[in-house]
Amino acid sequence: MTVLVTGGAGFIGSNFVIDWLAERSEPVINLDKLTYAGNLENLAELRGDPRYVFIRGDIGERPFIERLLRKHTPRAVINFAAESHVDRSIHGPGDFIQTNIVGAFNLLECVRAHFSAMDETARSRFRFLHVSTDEVYGSLDANAPAFSETHRYQPNSPYSASKAASDHLVRAYHHTYGLPVLTTHCSNNYGPCQFPEKLIPLIIVNALAGKHLPIYGDGMQIRDWLYVSDHCAAIRRVLDAGTPGETYNIGGWSEKPNLDIVHAIVDLLDEWRPRADGQSYGEQIAHVADRPGHDRRYAIDAGKIERELSWRPAETFASGLRKTVRWYLDHPDWLANVQSGAYRDWLEKNYVDMDR
Ligand code: NAD
Ligand code: TYD
């Protein structure tokens, strides 16, 4: 038995693969295109582990994916692969359409063929788990109830629209072809190995580099934050016990305005790595132009996964943020390699393509 993870060299995918192999004996195939967001250094501790295989490839490359499925016959596919940054989707939506919609469609076609060639027993245990986002539901008013699984879709950015499109395809493959799919909608993640273009690592990195801490608009936009290992545990739980065709919202019951996040990071850095001039990192906060179409508030009602699958987050925001800031302070080499682009060299040094 083996599982195929796509996008497993990115932030959440790499945490998922590492946690999986720490918890279970079942091997993992990690298929990743290694865009700018894919970093094999995230997975360095798995080098030499016989339960782990990395394969470089694109979820949209059909003959290659077909061969890979035939060769490894995974009993589950967990699809993390995506373009994931809203700001990049605003500047250039093309890659988002290509990977998040066309790529997901091609992957689904390959998985459908793989599934239909299975015997009854293999079919009954097979799952396709699609990792989606709360952003497909759009923006909430200040007092509106949190997103439930039946909330209408109203994506507002090219990123969320492309994720919504893939969700619809995944749903259709269940209803039309009987593919046993599971879809999860998670809130904003944070934790080790997040590329420093997203809010939390960007603020840490810029603070340490003496740069501005950019706050879009008034900084009162609200996100619902979840520590990455809690998201990974929730996905394992949905994979094990979720009902095919169902969707599950995953969140930390932890809504916070962006300004509070930035101040919490500033407080930890002031304590753990005080500025040489004795001033607070808060001095570096700068309000900048707002993001076009910026969603005001996201909030997840995680009641269904709690009730039906007994999943609950283990970390509070305070404990998760402490771990995260500590991780970035303790991994200056990871950060330097990401900032200089040297992490791309890992591919050349550490990857021998055996599956092509
Ligand atoms: P990320 O950008 O850090 O990683 C994405 C990974 O996918 C990278 O390793 C990249 O190389 C790979 N990839 C991109 N295009 C590919 C393709 N065509 N074929 C194969 N691999 C490809 O993203 P992340 O933050 O780890 O998010 C992972 C998933 O979780 C995404 O689907 C995202 O929509 C979803 N999600 C993210 C968050 C969050 O807060 N980061 C929250 C909810 C859901
Ligand atoms: P981000 O981490 O990009 O995640 P998402 O847009 O998917 O929620 O941004 C989180 C919030 O922080 C969002 O409201 C935008 C805001 N933000 C800033 O204010 N400044 C920044 O430099 C970044 C990257 C984000």
What report would you give on this structure?
This protein has a seven-stranded parallel sheet, sandwiched between helices. A three-stranded mixed sheet has the order 7-9-11. Strands 8-12 form a two-stranded parallel sheet. The chain is α/β, with parallel strands linked by helices and 356 residues long. It has 13 helices and twelve strands. The structure holds nicotinamide-adenine-dinucleotide (NAD) and thymidine-5'-diphosphate (TYD). Residues 6-7, 9-13, 32-35, 37-38, 58-60, 80-82, 84, 99, 103, 131, 133, 163, 186, 188-189, 195 line the site of nicotinamide-adenine-dinucleotide (NAD).
The helix content is: 40-55%
CATH class assignment: Alpha Beta
Low-confidence stretches are: none
What are the distinct ligands in this entry?
nicotinamide-adenine-dinucleotide, thymidine-5'-diphosphate
Mean pLDDT: 96
Q: How does CATH name the architecture? A: 3-Layer(aba) Sandwich
Q: Strand sequence of the main sheet, in spatial order?
A: 3-2-1-4-5-6-10
Give the tally of structural domains: 1
* Number of helices in the DSSP assignment: 13
Proportion of beta-strand residues: 15-25%
Query: Rg from C-alpha positions?
Result: 20 Å
